[in-house]
Amino acid sequence: MKSIWKNYKTDIAYDELMYSEFQSRSVSHSLCQYLNSLKKEDIDKRKIAAELAIMEMGISFTVYSDEGNIDRAWPFDIIPRIIDAREWRIIEKGLKQRLTALNCFISDVYSEQAFIKEGKMPGEIINSSKNFRKECIGMKPSYNVWANICGTDLVRDKDGMMYVLEDNLRVPSGVSYMMENRVITKRVFPELLQDIDILPIDDYPTHLHDMLSSIAPHQNGQVICVVLTPGIYNSAYFEHAYLAQQIGAQLVEGKDLVVNEDDCVYMRTIEGLEKIDVIYRRIDDDFLDPEVFRKDSTLGVRGLMRAWKAGNVALANAPGAGVADDKVVYAYVPEMIRYYLHEEPILPNVPTYLCSNKDDLDYVMEHLAELVVKPANESGGYGMLVGPHATAKEVENFRLIIQKDPRNYIAQPTLAISTAPTLCKGKLEPRHIDLRPFILQGENTFVTAGGLTRVALRKGSLVVNSSQGGGSKDTWIINMEGS
Amino acid sequence: MLSRSAERLYWLARYLERTENIARLVSVHMNLLMDLPKGVEMGWRQMILINASEKEFYEKNNVANERNITRFLLADDSYPGSLFSSLSAARENIRTSRELLPDEAWEQVNEMFLFAKSNLETVANRRHRVIFLNEILKGCQRFTGLLSGYMSHNHPYRFILLGRNIERADMTSRILDLASLLLSESRSDELRQYETILWMNILKSLNALLMYRQQMRSRVKGDDVLNFLLLDTNLPRSVGCCIAEISNSISKLPNNDDLTLKLIELQTFVQSIDTRQTTQKQLRTILDGLQNKLGELHGQIADNWFLRTAVE
Fold first, then answer.
1. Do B106 and A58 count as a contact with CB atoms less than 8 A apart?
2. What whole-number distance in Å separates Cα of residue A477 and Cα of residue B34?
């Protein structure tokens, strides 16, 4: 019988499932064998079944530019991505270490700024960061945790090492898709999930709920928690509704809330005003409170910052937490781990050139066509340059953009990020992937078992963002012990 | 419960009920026309009289034939009263209040919407239209069933009941309105012969024929049908029963003081209708009055519980 893996290319980058077209990695052995036992029509049928499930479950995200069609079905690849549990335990430890250090850093930034005073980082970086909120100086959120929910992007380079690409500490999204991907896989490959020992992921909402309750301003009686969404036109609206439903919270919009003279936050209910303790906000700082931040914001709640500073309501993530989401600050995380925790970083950073550094800038300018250049404060894969994939003209344009505002750009070597087999027009082909695990920190710290694997569906593309033609895969952390 | 959520669930239920009613109405009307001889003055035009959409229809169409009217009522997404528009509005409302309902509720409405969207073109064909309408009716029933079986009968559920029953009472009164219009002065002897068939179809459009027979134990007669559909308090689609349901839901909701009086007034109004003593013309006035009162009730519900963003 002809193998479906025939001519599968593993020389582009490290492949997560295959050593070569003839041999699978031990962790993916059962899956690869199983896929090979299926007829081509069977695989196509499963793909169609998955697409149907996505349509019916209404799993969607929103693309702003698509006029008239605000809902787009979630692009999902049925072939899962697999990681050995032994490797995962190390990554998990590394993620906890990293978020702990980041939270120490944010607390420090809004209090003594010892990290800067001791010369570990130039103060200029903080002062010029657009996510540094001077209104937050002196605040002490519960457990000194500012970033309660973090999505950290990991990539594997050709050496097989996992690197941290960035930390998303503002309003990271994707966790609902991680969970729905598993639901779909259970529908599509029920026989596989029975036989393979895959760590479950559906306890995330329980941990999210516990974390949110743990940061409430009071611990007597029932904690009232809400999810604050910018509304139906936000690209992650599906996720906001999904999470609210999963943790049994109300999904609210700014206009449902009001801050009274007592500096407490209330929601407008059919029984009158009801006091709120915790807000899981999915609105950026800028739009949170027109009294303090953008005056023209209609999404937020007037007086919310007053209520937060008076200690009457908890916000997750805390306003100002985004200061550590800056890609320039990112370069200093290994140093933060050493400084605050007196430990060596478990997960390495990708080498990063800061264009604000004269020496680094010179290097970047010389090697622009080989590097990936990113703006310091964007998300969603916007405004970046992938040197090796850009035209000479695009590279030159970017050169001018960087020179105008060096503080806001960083550069990294173009990694050969790992691939995984992906179903493309009925054939398995390698496509580049990354991984976004989600970390919760409140009273305790929790890491999802795996995370959201995003895949660049276009051949050769390295950009995995869903707004830029990316899709996703189910992520399996497999226990190999005993098998 | 958030005021905004209460409002969305209420409208979700109204739009779904409307979707179901339109489907039932068109389906029964098709059956009726198949029974009537060719040439009676009964046609598709009555379907647009019933919800006062004649003007809108003629802005887009020249002829009131079966093809145009069914497309207008079922598939026209620019006409807000069409089945597809109602279903789309229902989906939009449930999409923004998913967190209050069982997962299956959203999936059911979404599935139904996707089905309707991809089959809109087929409604022009009579055979396909029957299949289309059956699918929609089944989908609406499944929704009602799974809420009743899976959802706590709590405040959110009560707002769904409120929306459903106001819409239902309104539709029943409109169907009776249509019947009395058809039977008023202008009717010909020929149509009179088919009066029983007409009344039977009215009962069918409200799924009430079997229940009528069991309750009245007589042949189908206009006066009895009217009485049954207005006053019976056990038949789910009779006006009396809808009002009893509304009253029951409201009594369990908070801050309901102002509405209790209004409901008693409405109940008295309905129970005092005596179809044996009224002419067709008087009956139409009474039904108009009933529709207005239901409109006022809606206004009061909105004032009482829904989000009035203008009021700080």
1. yes
2. 63
pLDDT 10s digits, A430-476: 999 999 999 999 999 999 999 999 999 988 888 887 667 789 999 99
CA distance B222 to B228: 10
Average pLDDT value for residue range A364-374? 92
The nearest alpha carbon in chain A to B115 belongs to A56
CB-closest option in A241, A249, A270 to B1: A270
A57 contacts on B by Cβ (under 8 Å): 107, 110
Per-residue CA distances from B131 to B124, B126, B128 (Å) = 12, 9, 5
Q: What is the pTM of this model?
A: 0.85
Distance of CA A390 to the CA centre of its chain: 26
Neighbours of B38 (CB within 10 A): 5
Residue of A nearest to B307 (CA): A268
Find how far residue A250's CA is from the centre of its chain: 23
Q: Name which of A443, A411, A431 is nearest A314 in CA terms.
A: A443
> What are B57-72's pLDDT values in tens digits?
999 999 888 899 999 9
Beta carbons of B147 and B105 less than 8 angstroms apart: yes
Residue type, A452: L
Q: What is the mean pLDDT of residues B273-282?
A: 79
- Bigger pLDDT: B131 vs B48: B131
Query: Among A56, A241, A245, whose Cβ lies nearest the Cβ of B107?
Result: A56
Instruction: Kindly determine whether residue A270 and residue B6, on different chains, have CB atoms separated by under 8 Å.
Output: yes
Chain A residues whose C-beta sits inside 8 Å of any chain B C-beta: 55-58, 227, 232, 241-242, 244-245, 249-253, 255-256, 258, 267-272
A59-86 burial string, b = 16+ CB within 10 Å, else e? Answer: bbbbeeeeeeeeeeebbbbbbbbbbbbe
Q: How many residues does chain B have?
A: 312
∠ CA A11-A13-A18, rounded to 5°: 70
d(CA B216, CA B236): 16
Q: In what order do the strands lie in the sheet with A257-259?
A: A257-259, A265-269, A272-275
Put simply, the answer to whether B99 touches A253 (Cβ < 8 Å) is no
The answer to whether A138 and A310 have CB atoms below 8 angstroms apart is no
Contact B4 A268 (CB under 8 A): yes
Q: Answer whether B96 sits within 8 Å of A232, measured CB to CB.
A: yes
pLDDT band at A269 (very low <50, low <70, confident <90, very high): very high
Structure tokens at A477: 């952390």
Percent of chain B beyond pLDDT 70? Answer: 94
